[in-house]
């Protein structure tokens, strides 16, 4: 596979998802980058903005197994990863695998469950393995988490721990559609009575696990020159010297940004990374990793504004 074929594959996936989802192009672009760079994505937005439909349609267009977990306050870690249950007929314990054993996992309303249950995802997201009663079980190489969360201002939510947030490659804010897009949603979706499934809207698989593996191999071969590496390093280290921030980005964030920039370059049909790849992805990669200082919160500063100022302050190589 060539970078041109990766670009064509990305366009084909977007076209299929667009059969069911109106708008949200930037969200789907970030999900493609996350897929081809081995990352996970967190979608934040109010209910009814198609977050679940995006994830389901995305998985169907890729030909991946789709699993969903609805996070609630009483959800336990065993409900996610599974457990060894005693079978009275055989007088032996047998493994019951949880819904995490899939390829694309939708963690719906992930911030409605306490941190103890959220922590069940940490090992899976980092190492793509799950440990049950001391036994390590491998997940699919294509395992990807698409998590949704309600805005923190809503009631009955728990802020995600920093360790959990750092395992997400991107955090994307899913906003309300434009007036024209919303009119199209009302006109098309309002005229249907069938369930909101990708198949009902004509979304067809245009890839499979083998095809995705080929694309990822191409992404890994995309060139990353020293000047761009230095630019990534400057952005990450620059978040640690800002008075408005109590906590900056981790070294893991820099490595993830480099991998994501490679994926964006390939999806754009290039076999080399340019500074614009890094600059375009930096806001979604940094916004959930940075913590405002108490003084900045009192002054009403927004994390988005701080991220933008850091990116503007660091000069990109020419």
UniProtKB/TrEMBL annotation:
<dbReference type="GO" id="GO:0005524">
    <property type="term" value="F:ATP binding"/>
</dbReference>
<protein>
    <submittedName>
        <fullName>MoxR family ATPase</fullName>
    </submittedName>
</protein>
<dbReference type="InterPro" id="IPR003593">
    <property type="entry name" value="AAA+_ATPase"/>
</dbReference>
<dbReference type="InterPro" id="IPR050764">
    <property type="entry name" value="CbbQ/NirQ/NorQ/GpvN"/>
</dbReference>
<keyword id="KW-0547">Nucleotide-binding</keyword>
<comment type="similarity">
    <text>Belongs to the MoxR family.</text>
</comment>
<dbReference type="GO" id="GO:0016887">
    <property type="term" value="F:ATP hydrolysis activity"/>
</dbReference>
<dbReference type="InterPro" id="IPR011703">
    <property type="entry name" value="ATPase_AAA-3"/>
</dbReference>
<dbReference type="Pfam" id="PF07726">
    <property type="entry name" value="AAA_3"/>
</dbReference>
<dbReference type="Pfam" id="PF17863">
    <property type="entry name" value="AAA_lid_2"/>
</dbReference>
<dbReference type="InterPro" id="IPR027417">
    <property type="entry name" value="P-loop_NTPase"/>
</dbReference>
<feature type="domain" description="AAA+ ATPase">
    <location>
        <begin position="37"/>
        <end position="178"/>
    </location>
</feature>
<keyword id="KW-0067">ATP-binding</keyword>
<dbReference type="InterPro" id="IPR041628">
    <property type="entry name" value="ChlI/MoxR_AAA_lid"/>
</dbReference>
